[in-house]
Amino acid sequence: MIEAARRQTRKYFGKTIQLYAPLYLSNECVNGCAYCGFNSKSQIKRITLTIDQVAREAGYLRKQGFQHVLMLTGESREVVPVDYLREAVKCLKKIFVSVSIEVYPLLEDEYRNLVEAGADGLTIYQETYHLPTYRKVHPFGPKRNYRFRLEAAERAAAAGMRKIGLGVLLGLYDWRYESEKLAQHLRYLLKKYWQTQFQLSFPRINPAETKFKAAHPVTDHELVRMICELRLAFPQVPFTLSTRERAELRDKIFPLGITSMSAGSITCPGGYSLGVKSGKQFEIADTRSVKEVCRSLVAAGYEPVFKDWERSFS
Amino acid sequence: MSFFLLTKMSKKDPLVIAGKKFTSRLLIGTGKFPSPKVMQKALAASGAEVVTVALRRIDLKNPRDHILAYLDKKKYLILPNTSGAKNADEAVRLARIARAFGLPGWIKLEVTPDPRYLLPDPIETLKAAEILVKDKFTVLPYINADPVLAKRLEDAGCAAVMPLGSPIGSAQGLKTRHNLEIIIEQANVPVVVDAGLGAPSQAAEAMEMGADAVLINTAIAVADDPPAMAAAFKLAVAAGRLAYLSGLIGESKVARASSL
Fold first, then answer.
1. Fewest Cβ atoms nearer than 10 Å: which of A50, A164, A305, B120?
2. ipTM score
């Protein structure tokens, strides 16, 4: 299966890996997600970048070579309203060719608003498709609304978002169940929104500042199995693996199905250029610099791709 | 046949697109290569003179762009493509940007709203082609193997048509064979079979049918040895062309004694 997945990936995507950088704008959050460092009960320093600060962080990432950026926030409509998100997207679009967002679920019109501002991608993880577990790990806050989150990808696709990334937070529930439900969700979306580029990610729970213990930890072997099975089921769908995973593991498993990776990531707002060191969403496992990640890819015979989008598409 | 004879043959029988002569009938795409250096070696081994580049992958503002910097513009005609465009507006905008940055006014028009199968949108492709031809571009549209669409694009002033053999990167070969035969029979512009050719034998098959050229990318780029595979395609394309010009005997249900 591993060999078949490797062949399939190479056939459809070649020996290339697209690189992107996460850019955290705010760790303000009203939710109580048990696994997340931004949990409203976490005693972390709360920061929301000004648009000028966003531009400074973006400038730092652009200098590293990134052309694709993923902007992230916690969930606080009061401190981080849609108008702020719009201004941030507009600011980032001047600097990067592709701007994706990973923010709290929005209404269709709100997504449209951000698409018009220049957002071309959305990442929205259901975290878990298992409803009782979902309720347990989201004890309060707007994120407790399972259905509103489940249908967010659909609202974004209807609003014209070009790329939509789905995933589950591996470790919350049995990965086999999650994998099957994720595949069902993806299949449904692929048929209904045939013009949207759907993508999958494989985030595993990492210790955040909450010290959350995963009830269903996923081993490296199981992670590989999930990636390979989904690769064979969806040969043309791009897969992402973030710096949540260790460098040596990422180097070993990316050829089996991964087509894009983050690199040199920092998960707190202001962490790149503003000297902020606390208030992380989760701990990074692959701490290599962008250059080091590129060197590993090249050594493995792969080309790191920084640009695979055109500003004028949006 | 030696390389010498192959070269001699192709000089006598050039591919002509929009009045420009090419000795090679093999066009190459630049995506999916493991490195620009491997791409460069594969291009050299292929003998190709037309090289297509996805505008979404290159940074036109950067003179040291990782793909463009490796392409000798004196040696190759750079054929920018509009890969990723979902509609006519996006494709036209991309083509104009490419020309504004000094790339030649040749454009491989790709309008593919479905990101999974990358099949071209016939309506938007025709719409974009009409605009770009008026705009003095040399337009080579990527299309499904639809004979009527091919004629409509020819009437619109396209310099060639590029029907697919099967979906991009699928290596399924000439699944659209019967429609390709009609397109080739009816065309007054060169027919370049693009997409889906996964083996040199499939490229030879397209050339034996009478295609004017083929465009290959994935089969070369993801091979274990891309330069060697490029050389194999070079031979296959030349062999297929020579076979076509020499007159194939065609299939027969009954035996034909070779001793007569």
1. A50
2. 0.77
